[in-house]
């Protein structure tokens, strides 16, 4: 059987499959349908310092090949999340990753410091790219200077591995990726959801109160593949691919364009046990292609 382990340099993962923030609940509720120890890492929902109610409903809207969401990073606050992470750490050996959010740069630092002090948190993922909070989808990850400044502020205060989640809603992801790398990121997550719009024909109004929402699911996979490939060409640190992955073939395609690992999101909502199926499909496909381990496939896309 093919070896699906991944060495990120700062963390060894038993598999390349991580969960995407906001799509896996508190993880514990998935235990009846999925062995959590199969996963490479579990990424928790984005968290602020204090509890947040999120956006008003409606929050979800299905599209032909994906899902628009405007959840707005609802959450219990850092202290309550820390308690949940401690509890989950007793139930699985899979590394636990905190998705760090902030209303401004100092709050990002404060939240990161809370989880820097939590032994059960293996890594931090700096979420500088969520399009569903305010400002019409604008975020720090759309500006290289702001990205560099914010990553540097957090890096100075934490020693744990720091992943930086980038935005797809940019003309060129390369300078943003390089800015995050130069400021001290250990890896990049590429990417967050694409900014989209859904309208109600009868009411002549947008579906969501905040007008725009984030598109995920199979529709964005070709776009995410492009972004991952471009980011990999731009930096030397690992790139974790995210966007529309729902099969073993999808997973291996992201590895082939250079991703070190991947995150699955929307598929968790429609098929809670999808991770086990995807990993099995990937292993079977690797055996058929004569690929012993992921290093034999990673970055082999040819022009």
Using the coordinates shown, work out and report the CATH topology. TIM Barrel
Rounded to an integer in angstroms, the radius of gyration calculated over CA atoms is 18 Å
Beta-strand residue percentage:
15-25%
Unreliable residue runs: none
Order the strands across the largest sheet as they lie in space: 3-16-15-10-9-8-7-4
The SSE string, one letter per element, is EEEEEEHEHEHEHEEEEEHEHEHH
What's the name of the CATH homologous superfamily?
Aldolase class I
Tally of structural domains: 1
For the biggest sheet, the summary is:
8 strands, parallel
Number of DSSP strand runs: 16
Ends apart, CA distance between termini: 30 Å
Overall geometry: globular
State the share of residues found in helices, binned by percent. Answer: 25-40%
Work out the helix count: 8
Instruction: Write down the overall mean pLDDT.
Output: 95
| CATH architectural designation | Alpha-Beta Barrel
